[in-house]
Amino acid sequence: MASERTDLELVQEVLAGRIEAFEILVRRYQRLVATAALRMGVPRQEVEDVASEVFYKVFRSLRRYEPSHALSTWLYRITVNAALDHRRARRHDARSEELPAALADDRPSQLDDATGRERADLLHEALKRLPDHYRSPLVLTHVEGLQLDQVARILDLPEGTVKSRLFRGRAMLKTIIRRHYPGLVPEGAFEATS
Amino acid sequence: MFLMPRDDDPGERWADAMLSDLREERLDIDVTGRVMLRLEALRPSPAPAPLPGCWPGVAWAASFALGCACLVLLMATLGAMVLGGDEGVRAAWALLTSTGHVAWGLLGRFVQLCAAFLGTALVLLRDTFVLLDALSPLVRGAGTLVAAAGALSIACSAYVFDRARRGAPITAQHHTDPIRGGLS
Fold it and tell me: What pLDDT score was predicted for residue B1?
């Protein structure tokens, strides 16, 4: 539709005091924020809390938004930080139900032949075993499909650091999947890559 | 910075293929109402509607009239109590009278104290002035001596510096360059 307002126009309206314009931004980006939060390791049942917290933070710091970058990049950045904060806050309570350390536990998962939703859940589990600083670039690059420079901007890191974390993150993920979730990999896949 | 992939890195294509299920995953939520409700709470409450123009005047006049009526009522009550020889009024009057006596006595003592203090301070000041007057020739003499010593010290320093400059060895020759300028 030709009359659809751009993100920047909506941001300017909100800054001018028309809060209603923010509702359009929330509708436009809530799916992106929720999905990114889920992929960053926020439990499915708590994604709504994190998403609403993200939009609240966005609203409170809207004056600091730099229009030279896409709004979605800024949203990703706030979402990644919110997801990491959420995980840190929950880590203490959830220590008892936390999965054992990634490389110390050799037991394979009981689900050897996972499909569909189960497979996605297992992948989430596998990603959760990665340290935060390896998981974030991996998810943003290989799941969200962002470019290296965007990922670097979102994580506020040099591109070289993002690259090296990607290398290590992929290697760790491969080890974790081979040891704990062999059912996620088709026959011969490891042999082909290693 | 160009970084070579590590040997144990399975590569981008492996990661893309492995995580493709997550890429397909979409989460449909609606937090719009929740967010907007929270933001509405941030919005300052609307200011009260302004009153019509004549209302403040009417309110002021009514308050003033009510205040006057209260004052008249109070004075009338007090007058009636005094004229009627009320026991409470007599007690209050006696209390006021004795309080006044005590306050007057205290004030008198305070004034006496202040006067005594001022008298002593004046005597001390006068004595100090007399002492300074007696000592002034001595102070003038000491000042003259110190000034003379200062002048003598300056003269000695100038003499010593001049001797040192004259007796210092020449360490370098000055070359003057008429084009670029310099010391001559």
Answer: 41
The CA-atom distances, in angstroms, between A77 and each of A8, A33, B119, B138, B151 are: 17, 10, 81, 84, 77
Range of the domain at B114: 94-165
Q: What tens digit of pLDDT does each residue of B125-168 get? A: 999 999 988 998 888 899 999 999 999 999 999 999 999 988 88
Other beta carbons less than 10 A from residue A53's beta carbon: 20
Q: In 3D, which of A127, A117, A116 has the Cα closest to residue A177?
A: A127
In this structure, is residue B110 part of a structural domain? Answer: yes
pLDDT band of residue A186 (cuts 50, 70, 90) is low
Which residue ranges make up each domain of chain A?
A: 1-95, 99-194
The structure tokens 């809060």 sit at A19
Residue B37 belongs to a domain:
no
User: Under an 8 A CB cutoff, do B23 and A174 touch?
Assistant: no
Residues in chain B: 184
- Its CATH architecture, for the domain A1-95, is Orthogonal Bundle (1.10)
Closest chain B residue by Cα to residue A140:
B23
Q: Model confidence over B69-127: pLDDT tens digits?
A: 999 999 998 888 888 888 888 888 899 999 999 999 999 999 999 999 999 999 999 99
Distance of alpha carbon B77 from alpha carbon B74, whole angstroms: 5
Q: Is B22 on the interface with A (CB under 8 A)?
A: yes
Of A55, A56, A145, the CB nearest to B23: A145
ipTM strictly over 0.85?
no
Residues A114/A187, Cβ–Cβ less than 8 Å: no
Q: Could you tell me if residue B182 is inside a domain?
A: no
Which chain A residue is nearest to residue B14, measuring alpha carbons? Answer: A193
Residue B172 falls within a domain, yes or no? no
- Structural tokens at position B157: 């320093």
Q: List chain B residues with CB under 8 Å of A40.
A: none
CATH 1.10.10.10 assigned to domain A99-194? The reply is yes
Q: Cα separations (Å) of A9 from A5, A31, A169?
A: 6, 21, 38
Residue in chain B lying closest to A141 (CA): B16
